[in-house]
Amino acid sequence: MVEYKKPEYGLLQIEPTSRCTLHCTTCLRGSHPSLWQERDLDPDIFQKLKDVFSRTQAVHLQGWGEPLLHPHLISFISLAKTAGSQASFTSNGTIMDDDLAHRLLKSGVDAITFSMAGAGPLTQDSLRGTGSFDLLRRTLTTVSRVKKQLNKKRPVLAISYLLTPETLKDLCRSLLLCRKWGIHLLAGVHLTHAADEKQVKMQLFSVDEKQQPIKRQKTAPRLATLLALLCRVELRLPANTPSLLPICDKNPIDNLFIAADGSVSPCVFLNPPISAEFTWLSDCRNAQKIPVRFGNLHQDDLDTLWNQDSYRTFRKEFQRRVEIYQHYLGKVGYDMDGIEQLEQARKTIRKAFHENPPPLPCRGCPKLLGF
Q: 314 pairs with which residues across the strands?
């Protein structure tokens, strides 16, 4: 009998719940409430993954809902940590008190990211509901204070900052708040997956490589970069124009998403908790209907689903693109001819990518253009 080596995973993004405390206008839940399905991850499913966690670099507990609504979130963190994996989660910052903050910081969680959409109520509340910014401010104040009381270096605290034409104006003020709250990182994120025309108008990027960003898209990031150095806050901002990439930053070759119902997908954007097929609105061509799933943990174990032919074929299409990218860029020298070689490599790679497209469900996704 042939023994196969068990797969090793990069990051498992696991959705504790699809329930949420907010109805954001920038979310599929807010734009299509009739399609939304509320569900919680079965603790037995998480326990079933214990062996997998020992072969996983990191577990991130976040999907389409608010993780802190799940009553077993802290035990999920502890189980992942005990198995030897890093553990983190993302919260919208509407749920927190001193007791919860103490229990979270003592759980061993490596990082907590809080989502933010503006530096004050005027901006954020218009997108996420009245009172959402005050709740976020209260949460971050509490977590920062308790972290100092416990004299802990961990967890790393970060902000996931939604970029829209309006929130971009608040970027510098947001960095000042990060310094006040002891936030180590502010990562800007695009509204890549628009669910209606209103969301499309809030997108801050262009899929047209020749289209130049509007003036405020150049000025605000430059000022924010300088301010981040002064505030000692790491600032990461995405591009506003497309890049030539073999694979997106979700990296479905090594990573995957497990939804609250136990279904397995390559990416969170391919598997929202909805009751019918749906297509994201996008300027990109060939957008595919979602959800896209490769089985369910209620019926099979993760290794079995990962190794099934259909899922392996999906990943091989990306692997081929990565190999093409590395092969041709590897020929670019560091001498005076390097610039010309780089331009020729770009043309060759672009043609090769056309002949070797990404998996069908990912074609047209803005994430694959670097957004």
A: none
273-295 pLDDT, tens digit each:
999 888 888 655 556 788 999 99
How many CB atoms are located within 10 Å of the residue 68 CB? 22
Q: What's the gap between Cα 185 and its chain centre?
A: 15
**Model confidence pTM above 0.85:** yes
The Cα diameter of the chain in Å comes to 65
* Residues contacting residue 85 through CB under 8 Å, at least 6 positions apart: 53, 54, 56, 57, 58, 59
Dihedral sign computed on CA atoms, order 63, 69, 75, 81: positive
pLDDT < 70 positions in the chain: 1-4, 207-216, 282-287, 336
For residue 155, cis peptide bond before it (omega within 30 degrees of 0): yes
Token pair 């020298």 is found at 333
Structure tokens at 118: 């503006």
pLDDT value of position 283: 56
H or E stretch at 48: helix 43-48
Strand order in the sheet with 234-236: 234-236, 185-190, 156-163, 111-116, 86-91, 56-61, 9-14, 256-258, 264-265
Q: Taking a C-beta distance cutoff of 8 angstroms, is the pair 119, 131 a contact?
A: no
Question: Which element (helix H / strand E) includes 42?
Answer: none
How many Cα atoms occupy the beta-carbon half-sphere of 247 within 13 Å?
A: 22
Residue from 184, 179, 240, 231 nearest 209 by CA: 240
Read off the amino acid at residue 59: V
Rounded distance between C-alpha atoms, residue 351 and residue 316, angstroms? 19
Give the integer Cα–Cα distance in Å for 174 and 183. Answer: 10
